Amino acid sequence: MSTTRFPGDAPGRARTAGSSLALSMVVVIVVLLIIAAGIFLIFRDDPDDSQAAVIPSPSGTSELVQLGATPTPDGASVQETEAVDGATATEQTPTPSPTATAPNTATSTEEPTATEEEIEEPTSTPEPEEPEPTPTEPEPEPTTEPLEGDFGFLPPAQLPSGGAASRLTLSYQLGMSLEALPTSGTVYELIWPSYTFDDVVLARDQLGLGGDVIEEGVGVYRVEGDVGSLYVSPAEIVYYSAGGAAAGELPGDGEAIDIAWEWVSLSGFIPGEMDGGEVVARDEDSGRVVVKFRPVAPQPNLAPNPAATVTIGPGGTVLEVRIAWPSSMTPSEYGYTDPLAIWEAIQAGQGFLEADLSSIFATGPLSGTATIYDYWTAYTLAGSPGGGQYLVPVIRFEGTARIDQTGDEITIFVSIPVVWAQQGTVG
């Protein structure tokens, strides 16, 4: 470029050239500032990254411009520094709030990356618990019925009626433990004989009766002799003397038992073993003594049979004989009624009462209080020969009774059936 100089213009042109240079530098600085501001704004989005940009200076040298946030040691402030032509410009940035993170710790709005998510095992749905049962009272143990023996349910026992109970009424109290009572006993089935014609002929001859043997039915015979008559059947044998009583005295008990023993032994109608016999009645006025024999077992027997009863008159004459004797007895075990039920039956007056009231001098009905202190087992009949007959056990209680009307104290006996599998008492 050629410059026309005019006189006096040299100094002005020099000033013009200097002004243009200064203006150019200002423009360059402004541009650099704009660029730096743009870079600052760009990198300001990520304050954790500090970047350095090399910007050429107007003098042709490159100046290092440090952009970014540099925390102070106390984390209070951050500065940005630009180096332009050796000059340092400092801009104060806002002080972070107290909730800022620790120095050199990047604060990111990004969600934190999970290290490794824990995989929870699927939880099974618990089964509903069953409701606890409502507590109830324990069920009572089933009651075991007493033993029923081989003969099944038995017919009712036969006990005498009347006697002392017709005049004496007692209230009972225990003087012993009910636990002592037995819980079972033996029942005997009676098997009755069936005699033949020859059996009856033999008996007639041994007894010296004479006469003919007449068969009246199956197992039933009759003999009419000069001395006496004889009737034979399975259930009973009966003999009557034809001549009546002889003259003389009534034999004593021992002699009467011997006479009776000889007669029944000769008859052959006692197939089993019998006891020694006893005198059960004596009447001097009528001239009669009665001897009874029973099977050796079971005893005691409160029923009239099985037995052989012989009535003897003066001079030792056998006046009458009655024999009801089974050919055999089959035993079987049976359970007893509960002891408390037995005692309640006694209190209700269902037993057979035996008492000797001959020493009580009072008229009319009597009453009293009895104390039971002992017991034993006795027997009596049940059923009939044609439909099944048995010897069944009964409990025979013993005690003392104080009579209200006189104050006397007497011995009493009370018998009651005890087999559970049996109908009510007959008597």
Number of helices: 4
Provide mean pLDDT, rounded: 79
Label the overall shape: elongated
- List SSEs in N-to-C order: HEEEEEEEHEEEEHEEEEEHEEEE
Enter the CATH topology name of the largest domain.
TATA-Binding Protein
- Output the structural class: alpha+beta
Distance between the termini: 174 Å
Number of strands: 20
List the helices and strands and how they pair.
Blueprint: H1 10-44, E1 51-56, E2 62-67, E3 70-71, E4 78-84, E5 87-92, E6 168-174, E7 184-191, H2 197-207, E8 213-217, E9 220-224, E10 228-232, E11 237-241, H3 253-267, E12 278-283, E13 288-293, E14 307-312, E15 318-324, E16 328-335, H4 339-347, E17 352-355, E18 366-384, E19 388-403, E20 409-417
Parallel strand pairs: 6-18
Antiparallel strand pairs: 1-2, 3-4, 4-5, 7-16, 7-19, 8-9, 9-10, 10-11, 11-15, 12-13, 13-14, 14-15, 17-20, 18-19, 19-20
Task: Give a structural overview.
It contains 4 helices and 20 strands. It has 3 domains: 10-92; 163-189 and 330-417, Beta Barrel (Lipocalin), CATH 2.40.128; 193-325, YycH protein, domain 2 (TATA-Binding Protein), CATH 3.30.310. The radius of gyration is 69 Å and the shape is elongated. The chain is 16% helix and 33% strand. By secondary structure, it is of the alpha+beta class. It has helices spanning 10-44, 197-207, 253-267, 339-347, and strands at residues 51-56, 62-67, 70-71, 78-84, 87-92, 168-174, 184-191, 213-217, 220-224, 228-232, 237-241, 278-283, 288-293, 307-312, 318-324, 328-335, 352-355, 366-384, 388-403, 409-417. The longest helix has 35 residues, at 10-44. An 8-stranded antiparallel β-sheet has the order 8-9-10-11-15-14-13-12, covered by helices on one side. Strands 6, 7, 16, 17, 18, 19 and 20 form a 7-stranded mixed β-sheet that branches. The chain has a 3-stranded antiparallel β-sheet with strand order 3-4-5, with no helix packed on it. Strand 4 and strand 5 (87-92) form a beta hairpin. The termini are far apart.
